[in-house]
Amino acid sequence: MSTAGGAAAVAGRVERVRERIAAAAERAGRDPAEVTLVAVAKLQPVEAIRAALAAGVADVGESYAQELEAKAAQLAGTGVRWHFVGRLQRNKAGTVVAAGALVHSLASVPAARALGRRAHARGTVARALVQVELDERPAAHGVRPAELEGFVAACRAVEGLELAGLMVMPAAAADPEACRPAFRRAAELARSLGHGMRHLSMGMTDDLEVAVEEGATLVRVGTAVFGPRPARRPADLA
Questions:
Q1: Beta bridge partners of 143
Q2: Percent of the chain whose pLDDT exceeds 70
Q3: Among 4, 59, 74, which residue's Cα sits nearest to residue 238?
Q4: Amino acid 237: pLDDT
Q5: Phi and psi angles of residue 213, each rounded to the nearest 5 degrees, phi first
Q6: Residue 169 lies in a domain
Q7: What is the pTM of this model?
Q8: Contacts of 226 (CB under 8 A, 6+ apart)
Q9: Phi, psi (5° rounding) for residue 133?
Q10: What domain range is 75 assigned to?
């Protein structure tokens, strides 16, 4: 993406996504300002992120710690708020903490301790959402509802770590309505946990309306903002 036309295309997509969020919020009797658009820039070039920032997006998500680190360095001083939405490896906790990213995918106590340890060493606090698995998929990543209360208690005992809510990623479905039960259940779980669990990260390009109607405060949108994802790492991050 190297032309003004490319930046204009991103701006147009951002506007359309915001319109979708606003319409869904209106249907649910919510203020659209309660919903933050997180533009997921996995494998997108830095120039695409700059275009999104110019269009008013402040929150950007990355799935790989190495990519987050490189982009954060190139976009230092822009005011971007980083989100880490991929699986968190303990040995990458320091990278995520250094970027000041909100982690959406916390799913193990060792990872929680790694985040807290790295944050405490830097004199800061790492913020994270607990990824919840609601679909009973054998290979899925996340904390099962039956284990959630104990997991949250263990994480709250970690110095340097603050839990801010839940994240859910339902199984892919042709009909976005199929995701509604999972989104509704995630909202119920967050309310039951109380004590600062105010964020619900749920909803992506195809099902963001249903997520907003069910209480999402963070929607993770990639394709609808940036267009198709590149097949490989961009040249400016090679």
A1: 132
A2: 93
A3: 74
A4: 60
A5: -60, -25
A6: yes
A7: 0.94
A8: 10, 13, 39, 41, 44, 48, 52
A9: -105, 115
A10: 4-227
